[in-house]
Amino acid sequence: MAGHHLILGKLIDFITGETLDETHDERYRQKLARLLVKQKEYLKREIQPRFELVAKAENNKAIIRVDYVINVSGTIGMIIKYGPGSLVTRHRPVLAASRLVVPYQVPIAVVTNGEDADILDGSTGKVVSRGLEGIPSKSELTQKIVNANFITISEERAELESRILYCYEVDDSCPCDDTICKL
Question: What does pTM read for this prediction?
C-alpha cells in the first residue's frame, strides 16, 4: 500500500548520507538534523535517525520510528519525535517512547512539528522549554546527563508505556501511513 505523503523526489539524509524520498515531513526532519549538528553542536555519529522501537498492546505489535535518538558519551540523553500539527497531543507518546528506547528513563524528550518544539523532562513530563532554540545543545545535554537520575524502567511500567505508545501511534494512525509497520 502506498503512503499518503506527496513524494517530491529524492534527497540525501544529512546524518547518514542515505537517499530518501523527499516529502514535506522529511524536509522538516532534515532541517532538524542540520539544527542538531550546525547549531546544537552534536556530532553526526551521536545522532541515530529513524530508531525502530517495537510497541505492543496485548497480541498486537508494531514497529514505530523515533526520529532521532541522541547518544552523548555512551548515554542516550534525548529523543526527538517529529509530527505535523499540534505538539501537546504528542507529549504522552514521546514520553512513552522515552521509557522504551533503553531500560532507563531518557532525561529529555522532544516533540516538534519542525517549526516549533516542546522540550519535556522525561521523568516528570513537564515542559521545560519551548521552541527549536530550546532544544538542548550538546553541552547542555551533557550537563543534564551528569545531573540526571537514571531511573530503571520496570517490566510492568515498560508494558504499560508500550500500550500507550501503540494506542497513540498505531491505533490513532492514518490507515495509509507507511512509516508504521504492524507485525
Answer: 0.90
